[in-house]
Amino acid sequence: MTLLYKAAGQIRGDEILPLNQLRVQYPDLYERELGKYAARPQTLTNPVYPLGCCWADVVFLSPVHPAPIFQALQESGRIGPVVIDYWTLDADLLDPANTCILLKRHDPEMKPQPPEDFVPYSPAAAAALSIPTTRALHRLRTLTPTEPLYPWADIPHILHHGSIPLTCFRTATGDPITG
């Protein structure tokens, strides 16, 4: 089984919602999540070409376990030891028609990402991307005190158009998520 990863967080309801759906259903949670884009609000309208939608219409998942990413950040001295709280999702549960992969091969500040960085989704393709690149880990290990702290900037993204039922996710220990 190929696992995908999502940062654990405060959930209301029984689905993980993209930002545009969150805005309608839970405006207070939308405002909290919108803060992540304060320095780059234009990102929210960036196209997700294969899905015919924009950045704020998708749920973000990672094919890469968060541990090596945060270990590299610790090595840079930018963060101290952290307890990584994440959820997992069986990659087979996502419909490839509503899902794509963004490879993140270009400069993380490039907006929007070029169409050739979006590729079709499959569990096998996600599994092939489950190890962070040497380049990505090197960037995280060598961050200077003034560089933006974007842990996922050059890590492939799994983008799913629309909500995902909370029942599809498990805690890091394999327990069901309760809303």
Please tell me about this protein's structure.
It contains five helices and eleven strands. It has 179 residues and is α+β, with helices and mostly antiparallel strands. A four-stranded antiparallel β-sheet has the order 5-9-7-8, with no helix packed on it. Strands 1-6-11 form a three-stranded antiparallel β-sheet, with no helix packed on it. A two-stranded antiparallel sheet has the order 2-10. Helix 1 runs antiparallel to helix 2 and helix 3 runs parallel beside helix 5 (134-141). The model has no long low-confidence stretch (mean pLDDT 92).
End-to-end separation: 25 Å
* pLDDT averaged residue by residue: 92
Q: What Rg do the Cα atoms give?
A: 16 Å
Sheet with the most strands: spatial strand order? 5-9-7-8
Shape: globular
Largest sheet: 4 strands, antiparallel
Helical amount: 10-25%
| Unreliable runs | none
Layout of strands and helices, then pairs:
Layout: E1 3-7, E2 15-16, H1 19-25, H2 27-34, E3 47-48, E4 53-54, E5 58-61, H3 66-76, E6 86-90, E7 99-102, E8 118-120, H4 123-128, H5 134-141, E9 157-161, E10 164-165, E11 169-171
